[in-house]
Specification:
Chain A: Belongs to the RNR ribonuclease family. Chain A: Pfam families: OB_Dis3, PIN_4, RNB, Rrp44_CSD1, Rrp44_S1. Chain A: InterPro entries: Dis3_CSD2 (IPR041505), NA-bd_OB-fold (IPR012340), PIN-like_dom_sf (IPR029060), PIN_dom (IPR002716), RNase_II/R (IPR001900), RNase_II/R_CS (IPR022966), RNR_Ribonuclease (IPR050180), Rrp44_CSD1 (IPR033771). The complex is a heterotrimer of chains A (about 950), B (about 240) and C (about 290). With about 950 residues, chain A is of the alpha+beta class. Among the domains of chain A are: about 5-190, Rossmann fold, CATH 3.40.50.1010; about 450-685 and about 775-825, no CATH class; about 845-950, Nucleic acid-binding proteins (OB fold (Dihydrolipoamide Acetyltransferase, E2P), Beta Barrel), CATH 2.40.50. In chain A, strands 18, 19, 20, 21, 24 and 25 form a six-stranded mixed sheet that branches. A five-stranded mixed β-barrel of chain A has the order 8-9-10-12-11. Chain A is globular. In chain B, about 30% of the residues lie in helices and about 30% in strands. Chain B has four helices and nine strands. In chain B, a hairpin with a 7-residue loop joins strand 1 (about 25-30) and strand 2. The chains are: A alpha+beta (about 950), B alpha+beta (about 240), C alpha+beta (about 290). Chains B and C meet through strand 3, helix 2 and helix 4 of B and loops of C.
Chain lengths: ~950, ~240, ~290
Amino acid sequence: MLKSKTFVKKTRSGGVMKIVREHYLRDDIWCGSEVCVECKDETPVLQKDACIESNLCTFPHYLIPDTNVVIQQIDILEDPLIRNVIILQTVLQEVRHRSAPIYKRIKDAIHDKEKHFYTFTNEHHRETFIEREQGESANDRNDRAIRVAAKWYSEHLSKAPDAGDLKVVLLTNDRDNKEKAEKSGLIVYKCEEYVKSLIANPELVDRLALTSDEQNEITGSRVVFPEHLPLSKIQAGIKSGTFLQGTFHANRDNYLEAKVYVHGEGDESTEVLVQGLLNLNRAVHQDVVAVELLPRENWVAPSSVVLIDDAQNDEDAEEEEAEKKVRKALDSKPAQGSTLKPTGRVVGIIKRNWRPFCGMLLQSHIKESTRHLFTPADRRIPRIRIETRQASTLEGQRIMVAIDGWPKNSRYPNGHFVKSLGSAGDKETETEVLLLEHDVPHLPFSQAVLSFLPKMPWSITEEDLKVRADLRHLTVCSVDPPGCTDIDDALHCRELENGNLEVGVHIADVSHFIRPGNALDQEAASRGTTVYLCGKRIDMVPELLSSNLCSLRSNVERLAFSCIWEMNQNAEIISTRFTKSVINSKASLTYAEAQMRIDDTSMNDDITKSLRGLNKLAKILKGRRIEKGALTLSSPEVRFHIDSETHDPIDLQTKELMETNSMVEEFMLLANISVAQKIYEEFSECALLRKHPAPPPSNYDILIKAASSKGLVIYIDSAKALADSLNDAQVEGFPYFNTLLRILATRCMMQAVYFCSGMDSDFQHYGLASPIYTHFTSPIRRYSDIIVHRLLAVAINADSTYPDLMDKHKQAALCNNLNYRHKMAQYAQRASVALHTQLFFKNRGILNEEGFILFVRKNAIIVLIPKFGLEGTVFFENKDKPSPRLSFDEEGPTLTVEDHPFHMFDKVKVTISLDSSNIQHQKIRMALSEPVIPGVSVSMPETEPEAKKPKLDR
Amino acid sequence: MAGVELLSDQGYRLDGRKASELRKVQARMGVFAQADGSAYIEQGNTKALAVVYGPHEVRGSRSRTMHDRAVINCQYSMATFSTAERKRRPHGDRKSSEMSLHLKQTFEAAVLTQLYPRSQIDIYVKILQSDGGNYSACVNAATLALVDAGIPMRDYVCACTAGFVEDTPLADLCHAEESGGGTTLALALLPRSRHIALVQMDARLHQDHLDMLMEAAAEACRGLSKVLDGVVRQHLQEVSVLTRD
Amino acid sequence: MAADMRLPTAGEQISSSSLSLLDGKHLVVPGDVITSDTGFMRGHGTYMDEEKLTASVAGEVERVNKLICVRPLKTRFNGEVGDVVVGRITEVQQKRWKVETNSRLDSVLLLSSVNLPGGELRRRSAEDELSMRDYLQEGDLISAEVQSVFADGALSLHTRSLKYGKLGQGVLVLVSPSLVKRQKTHFHNLPCGASIILGSNGYIWLYPTPGQQDEEAGGYYTSMEPVPLSDREVISRLRNCLLVLAAHKILLYDTSVLYCFESSLSHQIKDILKPEVMDEIVMKTRQRLMEQEG
């Protein structure tokens, strides 16, 4: 092997340093082609007959895309039609540098055997490595490297005896690069040219990303954004403090407003407000941007206006109108020092975070036009201009679109069509959309994953019994909601001879089946959680495990991980024991059934006795927990009754809580806390725990204000004080008030998160008032629990450890993923409920319901309908109607509409209907019906829906 | 932006080597006339110079004298120009003292010190250019210098580093790889007997990976020992030819 | 200012023809197994590793009957009784001086092993002990002979001859001890006008030839007379010649030094150490030595 040496010198800013690095150039890097005899590659990737039918290239050929082609046209490259592509290392490195998601996608494509993508390590190859020349920019050097490699390939392949017509084709969109390549005798095409020449697949053309060349044609729009600053200037600015770097968060309710979260030192982070189209300057939700603060006199307060970009087409007239509206809203309010927030403008984009977006096509008014606007489902994403010839077929369908770029003279970003998901409004399509939008992995489990499942028929072996405690004789039972098939916990309680009680919590032993590191484990880790949608469950582990082998069903032997306490009659723990076990559940009960057994004094069998014992202890435990300051919060939860045939929602009811719910919950909490203590004791560096930080006092402002409007005081000094004052907050003749207050309190809370004990110092769980907490009890549906199981198993010497388990950085990365998945699962769940609510109301016509005002905004009120657990906005401004007189008082907060003041918690009546005028965003429309304000409220609907009502009142 | 990719999917490292490949090693013995033994080694861009004085009467504090064997005295230093950023103190800082101690321990395991009671052997090493694997370059240079000085040893001591990236052990790390995070293990081996003279690792690594990493480091040491062996034999022949009469 | 700069040339590769000269030699490196036959005796430079005789140094294997040694290329001085050495006083102790002689341990010069002024038969008194520093103090150079070898390998020296004693004006050249050829005498008055003491320990002393043997000085008198320029030039030339010979690993003895001196006469003293001049001088010297031998 030849090793020759050249030196790459680099200077880094901030004190010039000369860095000398070695670079070994090799002669054992193969070309990867089947035809080549010279290279000793054992498994060539590139096929001999590399045929893609094309007008331009009638011969077999390999494609070499340059960096920009890969980044812009990744959708094309991912198409199964495109095969035999040589990805140069230069290209791969540049892609990696510029876009992480695309890098991942191209890597996936490379790994796909069917695609025959080959990575040629040209930078390490003796004949294709080139040195940067004097005065040559890095980009030019890379372009040249690509040309040199392409040239090498064409010469190399021509030497092969049976290469035939095999050639390499360079794809580049850079004019300069193309000319130079042509000069050196390469076959080179622009990506568009090439794709358009493909005979078999015209639809690929739609997927072409719009490139800068074409943007010239789409000018004429009057909006001209300020130029983005180059990265070097941004970095200099960030260093000197004139610019701030942060994540861009578009406002869901107002498309002309956004916040930039600036990550400060440590945990501190500040928010910078950005208002107005020009100040937003083409930033898209989730981008990492650089902002410049405006001078203090230009600072504004966040507007509470709800503003939706409803403009029907490119016309910008309406924009200005809307903008005026905002300005008006802003001007109307005298600048109050206290509410002013730091305000800034976006000066540059540090990193785009674009992903393919779901949404719908908004057809152009001009019939033959191929340019259309696309409206994403996520309101925080601007509309995207795409080019397609299939507009008529795509109408009414949910489609996916990717953004390609946002030129400074275009009102909207340019993008291209990726794929169609199905027709809008269709439940399956909509569910698909919400899964995609919330990044929930929902594809069926791959064969690789399934291959790690235990072989059926499965039974407990002798070896299992040897290492496990045999608890089959115990009267164990499970209590779950009705229809639950993934039972991951079961309980038992029995009296010991010394008068104490033995309580056991038995958790499905999922970690027995999912071994660390295999495909099944990786898939579960990536999914992180099972997602429960209305009428649909997206499993974290394959069904064989979730509903059968792991599920602790009654009267079958199952493997479990048991946590067994000895307690005295006062529920004080005397000893705790953890063991892997074999159990045989005697009964699977629902909450209601269990409750019935406890209440029915005539029943005195073992199961019932066990339940009564548990119930008694649970009450003591709960009392003690509340004493310590655990919060009881509330959120409106509804359940849909789903038609078994059509899977449409036919009814909805709010969740009912029974004593048994809290009984099970109490023991799960106890188990979790016990396990958390144990694993933290054993692994102080890498225990996976869950914390719930105390919210900053300012979070409670809204709650305190709201309570004080009813003359009540809420204390927030500690969780205990909060819990007590919530308990005391009652208003005569308004029983629902307390619940409303708790709903508000819930919204003040922080998110509970998983974390690795070695990476954090604050372990407190505020809501549960526990100094330490983790998740142990639901390994079938949460991956965190699987990790905790493994840790605990190691701690009790029941299982061996593995490297990643003890690596706190990998743990922390895992926690981040789990937190993200959990958050997304919650959002998806909510979205699913919203979707089903819409479907529900679709069949109901217009209803008139009683509700309470939850929040007051500047031009709207947000109303909660307790009956449906539904929250909606009542707007007081309408485009087609003259606006009523509105005056908003920050302090109340109150909104006065035509002399009628609206306060928080006011009882109102609203009509509910489904607004299908915009098929993209079907929404529940609420309108005020009581109190009656002329010109604002709507009349009572006809009594027609009443006929259906009895069904609801059940 | 992601950090540097230390090992590409195709199995190449930053500088074009494969996971188990060493850097280019060049060495010379007997570079100074005045010392009893001296050697210079280049492992890639890491360059080290070693000189050996002794065995001789114990100088300085008499109390260190051992009545059954020789004392080994090591001093490690780095030239001020050896790193990208100029070093303020060439020696005497905590790191250097630690390195000196490690070198001492390494060679006490290899040199037949019991042959020289009440004597002292001085080993001075200096890093002229640092690009990762300073310890191993020092050990290798010092080995050559000891051979040059005619001081009896059980075997060569060969040292090499190995790192662990994406479940693959990398041999002979360069500076970029050492500072790119991850675990670095330095191993000094008596290659023929496979005895370990010193092993050092100051980051966390799971037990399961240790064997793999040790094996990679040992393999790298054996590779290095072949190179050193070649250097010594070449030197031996050259000198023998000159003194043939 | 013009400076004469030279870059080191790559060490010449030994040709295969010269390699053939090594055929008879058994070269080993540390860790090499010399023999696994147990019938041999372990000598210097070897150790037993699991019943195998293993080399501990790099060098040539020497076999004397059953005894196997490895002679390293380069080593410290291993003194034997009768060797003439040149050394430097490092320490004055009770009744003894410590002398640095390039050995593994400092050599000892006992007060009883020196000739004190006043004749050989003088008793050593307590006063002598106190005035040891008057005779020899730290830093002084002496020539001496090995009287005996202690168990730990340290040498005991004596200067009981008028040849030995303190050295006065002259130049010390350090070479590897293995380069000094053992001869009947190591003191030479070279015909070129200077004298040389070829210490077996590799310390070589060059000094102007004394006018007459100064009997009474007893070796402790050093003349402070200025040395004439011509003598100094000769000594300088000799010093460079010694370095040339040492660099090319040519054994040092009166003839080789003299031949080398004569070969160098065509060059200026300062040019002698230039590599190309060195090569030329060495070639000439070798040739003459071979002629002489042949």
